[in-house]
Structure formats: C-alpha cells, structure tokens
Amino acid sequence: MKLFRKLGIDLGTANSVVWEAGVGIVLDEPTVVAVGIEDRKVLAVGNEAKLMLGKTPEYIEVRRPLQDGVVADYEVTEAMLKYFLRQVMGAGWFIGPEVMVCVPAGVTQVEQRAVLDATLSAGAKKAYLIDEPLAAAIGAKIPVSESFGNMIVDIGGGATEAAIIALGGVVTHKSLRVGGNKLDQAIIEYVRKKHNLVIGELTAEMVKIKIGSATKLKRPEMMEISGRDTVYGLPKSLMMSSDEVYEAIIEVLRSMVGVIRETLEITPPELVADIADRGIVLSGGSVQLRNLNKLVTSEIGVSAHVAIEPQFCVIRGTGIAIENLEVYRRALR
Ligand SMILES: Nc1ncnc2c1ncn2[C@@H]1O[C@H](COP(=O)(O)OP(=O)(O)OP(=O)(O)O)[C@@H](O)[C@H]1O
Ligand SMILES: [Mg+2]
C-alpha cells in the first residue's frame, strides 16, 4: 500500500468524480446526500441517496450540496467529502492524501476558501485548487501551453463555462449558472403548463437524455412519461414527442450558447482568429445532448466538436495536474 497518496476531485453540481494518481478514476457518484432533518445526520451519499430523490419520508431530506458549480451547503459538502475519502482510501489511513480540487474560473475568494476548508477538514493533508476550464482543456487533450488560443466550453449540471486557454492559463472566460439541471426544469415546466402533468426531476432528465435534441429531429421520437395530474391529483401518463422537448429546452440552450458568444467578444482578436481556425471543444456531461455541437456551430459560425468522454474531461485534467504538480504549479490558484 502506498503511504503518500494523491487524489484529484471534481466536485460537480450533478456528479462528483475522484481520480487517484497512478490509477485513474476510482469513484464516480451523484453529488447527492440524504440527511435526517432533526439530527442532521448523513444517512446516504451518492448513488444510494440519488435513488431517494423525490421519494423520502418527511424526516429525511435529500440535498444537492453544490449549486451552480459552487458549495451551497458547507456542512453537507464536508460530510460528503469525508465519505468519498473513506471510500477511496479504505480503512486505516494515517496520512491524509494530497488533493487537487477544481473550481469554476469565476468563483469568489469566499467560495474558494469554502472548498479548501471542506477538503482539509475532510482529511486531506494538503489541498490545491485548479481552474475548471484549464482542467477541462488538459483532460480534452488540448495542448494548453502553446501560444495559440484554444476554446473549451464545459456544460455540466449546474453551469456553463466558456474559456480561452493559451500559454498554460485561462485568458478570458465567462460563465453562467445554467446547466443540464435547467434543461430538466424547463421540461418539467413545459409538461406542467401544456399537459397539466407534474413529473419528477429524474423523469425529466430521462426524457432529455432519451429524446432530447438541440436541433429538431428529421424523424421525431416519442416517449411515455408518467406523473400526477395537476387538476385531478391522480396518476397520469402520456406520450411526449422530441419536438416538444426541443420546444421546451431551446431557450435554455440559446442562453448556454450566449456564453460562448460573450466570451469571444472579450477575447483579443489574435486569439479569436486562432479559435476560428481550430474550432471549439465541448466538454461536460450536458454536451452529450444530441446535436448540441451542431447548434453551437450554426449559432457561432465556428466548428464545434465534443471531446472524448466529455463528462470526464475535468477530472482527467485535474488528475493529470496532481500527477504533474511541478508542471502545472504556476497555473494553480
Ligand atoms: N446523454 C446525455 N444527454 C444530455 N445530457 C446528459 C447526458 N448524460 C448526462 N447528461 C447531463 O449532464 C449533466 C451532468 O454533467 P456533469 O457530470 O458534467 O456535471 P457536473 O460536473 O456535476 O456539473 P457542473 O460542472 O455544472 O458543476 C446532467 O445535467 C445530466 O443530465
Ligand atoms: Mg463539471
């Protein structure tokens, strides 16, 4: 057993992923925690807690301790990190690991401090922070230290973050606290207004993944959804079409694409020219939405492509950074 261990952690709004230096991804679970309402005890974390979403008795509350990419509930985040470290480190470790955690480029000092403190009090010996867009770019195999500009756009569960990377650092960036969760919410709203049907978050997410698309499909697809009728309060099912899903989410998608446009607007012209040549790289779980790259390409006029395993770009980059601390030290926060 190794005495000194190094970990990378991507604390996402939707999913948390842990990387162990020399090993790779060792944990990947939803960022969800179930706590007792009275005693605030943690009852379940990750997969187990996500299954409880929307189904708990009144003395249990299921929480997402990160909101819009930043720590919203400090105590619960710390408890969750403790659980993750225990899972990964196994029983009986004496020396805490060195941990690299990524944070959105736009976080405030206070938000940064919260992540560092939670990591240290969960048992890390040392904690470092890296900008998420830089981590995403490293993980997407973009040659980040070149003098050419590269654009990476990460769309996760809680946020959309666009950044231009050159010479090993973030040159310009913009972010919006809108991610895949907002797409789910838009579907919930649409179904409630149009069909008087209340559906849960998990159902909405499933609809998005199965029949969602960022452009209208030539051959529309259908899916059955179930929930509660808002008028009669009784169970109801109906068929939803991919055209309806498109209609429900397109405005949210446009606001995500807007972040890319705003970032280009504040970027020096030489670098914008590089982006026009090299295209835009997309990372994050939400870029797996069908045809999202097509929407970006047509709205921005620059070709966009989805990175390999986009949902793991950030953790891969964070892991590579902790494994090569000396190379990336200058770029850390
Ligand atoms: N095939 C798919 N199509 C569309 N969306 C998907 C697909 N698979 C996963 N998602 C969405 O990806 C999002 C999670 O992505 P990711 O794990 O990158 O988020 P995160 O890192 O936790 O969030 P953030 O970076 O915003 O804090 C969820 O909203 C999920 O619904
Ligand atoms: Mg993320």
Automatic annotation (TrEMBL):
Highest taxon of source: Bacteria
Subcellular location: Cytoplasm
Binding site for ATP: T13, A14, N15, E205, M206, V207, K208
GO biological process: cell morphogenesis; regulation of cell shape
Sample GO molecular function, one term: ATP binding
Keyword Cytoplasm: yes
Entry annotated with the keyword Transferase: no
Subcellular location, principal: cytoplasm
Keywords: ATP-binding, Cell shape, Cytoplasm, Nucleotide-binding
Gene Ontology terms: cellular component: cytoplasm
Function: Forms membrane-associated dynamic filaments that are essential for cell shape determination. Acts by regulating cell wall synthesis and cell elongation, and thus cell shape. A feedback loop between cell geometry and MreB localization may maintain elongated cell shape by targeting cell wall growth to regions of negative cell wall curvature.
Family recorded in the similarity comment: Belongs to the FtsA/MreB family.
Oligomeric form and interacting partners: Forms polymers.
UniProt protein name: Cell shape-determining protein MreB
